[in-house]
Amino acid sequence: MKKRCAWLNPENEFYTRYHDAEWGVPVHDDRTLFEMLVLEGAQAGLSWETILKKRDNYRAAFHNFDIAACARLTEADEARFMENPGIVRNRLKIRSVSINARAVLAIQKEYGSLNAFLWAFVDHKPLDPRYQAIGEIPTKDDLSDRISKDLKRRGMKFIGSTIVFAYLQAVGIVNAHTTDCFRHRELRARG
């Protein structure tokens, strides 16, 4: 039996599939980076599993996270989303999608891509802090503080340091799989 991060309930097949195949894998595609940014912001105050279960609904509602399309969302679109039970119906979280999409477009114009902007913070190499136990994993750190501050300066919403740290783990910028987890070794080998 494969050893996994201790926070994962191995009986939850849905979450286990996400842990094994996606969480912590370095992402370099701007659309996926934007998708995860939106989903991490939507997760604030909720469980990540709740958001993952709504992911397909988010993709359908938000044009498969096409950044330019999300930047053009209107108040009428936002009102329609408030009636959609398949997503988190929080007006501020919904509005943040278009606000953040416009900020990402500006980042792309300045840096060439969201990927180049984000990965420059870590010299384009995943960080491997080698956490031995889940109790060692912080909820935020200096890196997430710096990125959060930069993104807020650019007008982004739902982008506090704790959200950013979870995001950095999800998109593989920080390998937060514990050292006893089989995925830690696999992802470290890719680094």
Number of discrete domains: 1
Please write the CATH class name.
Answer: Mainly Alpha
- State the fourth-level CATH superfamily: Hypothetical protein, domain 2
Tally of DSSP β-strands: 0
Radius of gyration using CA atoms only: 16 Å
How would you summarize what this structure contains?
This protein is mostly helical and 191 residues long. Helices cover 57% and strands 0% of the residues. Helix 2 (30-43) packs across helix 3 (48-61) and helix 8 packs across helix 9.
Task: Describe this structure as you would to a colleague.
With 191 residues, the protein is mostly helical. Helices cover 57% and strands 0% of the residues. It has a single domain (26-190), classed as Hypothetical protein, domain 2 (Endonuclease III, domain 1). The protein has helices at residues 13-21, 30-43, 48-61, 67-71, 75-81, 91-111, 114-120, 142-153, 161-170, 182-190. It starts with 12 loop residues before the first helix and ends with a helix.
